[in-house]
Amino acid sequence: MRISVLQGDITQRRVDAVVNAANSSLLGGGGVDGALHRAAGPELLEACRELRAARLPHGLQTGAAVATPAFRLPARWVIHTVGPNRHAGQTNPALLVSCFSESLRLAETLDVRELAFPAVGAGAYGWSAGAVAAAAQEALTGFRAAHPAAGLELVEFVLRTAEVEAVFRDVLGV
């Protein structure tokens, strides 16, 4: 599995799946979540409403992941995960690791070869770029150990600023 770190717009990535830093409602929001919903079109919101009605009446739990089609995005899938909100007292880094681990696990079940992550939990949820990158590194290490023959060929981190990109490059060693 190749790891890539770049500055860019995750809504433009031509990969099998993109990860959405969602909120528990799955009904859109700000940041990456809002950008992905806008770019995917109203079909994404409808798919999320259907998920809520059928399987997730109380929303998606922190650290969990669920997939929908990507609709108008250049990807096939959107994997939604809910990061812990430090501002709301969710300070357990294991929940942050779980966001990455569960997204990787779900990507494997969807036969995803190329997966793009944002900095889940950074920004509005208050985690530092270093903590997020460390959580991603821990999840990647665990995933590689548990799935040595995984079909994932590329995991990329698509980050909005040069500063966050530099932190991820340093922590991930790429």
From TrEMBL:
Pfam families: Macro
InterPro entries, A to Z: Macro_dom, Macro_dom-like
Every Macro domain range: 1-174
TM region(s), chain numbering: none
Gene3D superfamilies, sorted: Leucine Aminopeptidase, subunit E, domain 1
SUPFAM superfamilies in alphabetical order: Macro domain-like
Name under which the protein is recorded: O-acetyl-ADP-ribose deacetylase (Regulator of RNase III)
Organism, scientific name: Pseudarthrobacter niigatensis
